[in-house]
Amino acid sequence: MDREAAVREYNRIRIAGAIESFRQQAFAARYFETAAEAVEFFFSQITKKTSVGHGGSETLRQLGVLDRLRSGGYNFLDRYVFGPSYDEQLEIRRMNLCADVFVASSNAVSIGGALVNVDGDGNRVAALSFGPRRVVLFIARNKLCDDLERAVHRARNVASVTLAIQYAANTPCAKTAVCHNCASPDRVCSYISIIEHCTPPERISLLFINEDLGL
Prior knowledge:
Elements (H helix, E strand, L loop, with lengths): L2 H22 L3 E5 L2 H10 L6 E4 L3 H6 L1 H7 L3 E2 L9 H11 L4 E5 L2 E3 L3 E6 L3 H7 L4 E7 L3 E2 L2 H19 L5 H5 L14 E5 L8 E6 L6
Parallel strand pairs: 1-10, 2-3, 2-4, 4-7, 5-8, 7-10
Antiparallel strand pairs: 5-6, 6-9
């Protein structure tokens, strides 16, 4: 077995453990060897009439999911067609909370079956918990952590810090690459969510992908 095959098998085994844990916690969870397979499965589960909301996600951008929703005649509640101000975004973000399907990624997941997400304004973590009829999360293998403590660390010190750097935020973490739990107006991590059980059962679907994606 060559190195790449060994890496894929290592991650397949880890993902299989996570899938078992999440299914025990009433999540729907599936494995996909490639990102393309996960994307095709997602689109097979919606129709052009399905209202689809979304959270900010580098993973979705990389997968081309948002572009396909925009160009394919879907009932897409696209927050990016509105202006960047809070008032301009407020109404579309509220509409996202009532979508038939809300699609996003997760900042981190634990093998033991917990989703960990950090949010600036709280709209994404709100939708994960309540509102949309269904939630679909694309989970790349680099988001998988050994336990909850490491998942929280990843969400705060990898995903959030990288986002702050990407946005050129005026925060301590953007300068030091470490979360300082600051009070900066530019802070991108005001809300943290940990979801360890899915209620109602299988409302949240996790599409695990044996590739590295997102922040």
